[in-house]
Automatic annotation (TrEMBL):
Transmembrane regions: 12-35, 78-102, 114-135, 147-170, 191-213, 270-291
Primary subcellular site in the record, as a coarse category: membrane
Organism: Cohnella cellulosilytica
InterPro entries reported in the protein's UniProt record: MetI-like, MetI-like_sf
Homology family: Belongs to the binding-protein-dependent transport system permease family.
Domain of life: Bacteria
Protein name, as recorded: Carbohydrate ABC transporter permease
Cellular compartments annotated: Cell membrane
Domain ABC transmembrane type-1: residue ranges: 78-291
Membrane topology: Multi-pass membrane protein
Keywords tagged on the record: Cell membrane, Membrane, Transmembrane, Transmembrane helix, Transport
Gene3D superfamilies: MetI-like
Amino acid sequence: MQTAIGKFKTEPFLFHTFNVLIMLFVATVTLYPFLNTLAISFNSGVDTTRGGIYVWPREWTFKNYDAVFASGKVYHAFWVSVARTVLGTVSSVFLTAMLAYTISRKEYIFRKPVTLIFVLTMYFSAGLIPSYFLIKDLNLLNTFLVYILFPGAGAGLISAFNMLVVRTYIRTLPESLIESAKIDGASDFRVFMSIILPLCMPVLATISLFTAVGQWNSWFDTFIFASSRQELSTLQYELMKMLSSTVNSNANPSLSSTAAKDTATMITPLSMRAAITIVASVPILFVYPFLQRHFVSGLQLGGVKE
């Protein structure tokens, strides 16, 4: 009897110990690439080429970040990226949720054909060249609206995948809430704004994060549709040009007078790439804490079934 009781008490201890070890391993594997990149970004470029940099710089320097922020274009491009990320995410999530609510209603007789049309766009695309001519015919080349209406090189304002995710979530909501609101005289738009949107915050937070990351990281649409206007250049595009120039100047030393004067602090492509990665990723990391509570509350919503 005592042996059985001892075994019963030992099993939870072993399980929790094993669980903690697994979580520590996963956390280490997840954090190490970021910490390694951060260490390289603060390490001397020439010393980095020797290797052996893990999570702590061997020769501290701010030359990499000085090179990133040496041009005043970066600051303006940063605010352009912020503007496109905020406006693009808000407009995309709102319209996606509105479309998802529409095709989730059983009384909408065209819900199946409309859904099929959007699903087809997930498998078939016209390609970059037709998208370019479409944007050109709409007079959207070299305009800020191209970032909102056609983000990611013509991907579109509404994501079919996000729309299906939101539609599926809306179907889990109690139908009685919508029926009660309509009995009280609420219109479909009022139901959408007052009932659907508040209850869909967890799933909207999820697709908002995906959309914001996509908007923030996008640079190819700037290269294709807005490269002629410097005032529309985004942070990612400026950093991409900076990294390309660094690679070229190190490949041809005659193009880099700074490196020739001071080889001890020469900016190498590896160190420059690390600094650029940190500058580009840190701002978007601050978005997650504001959305985390919606992820947690998503575990509770949708538990009421009819």
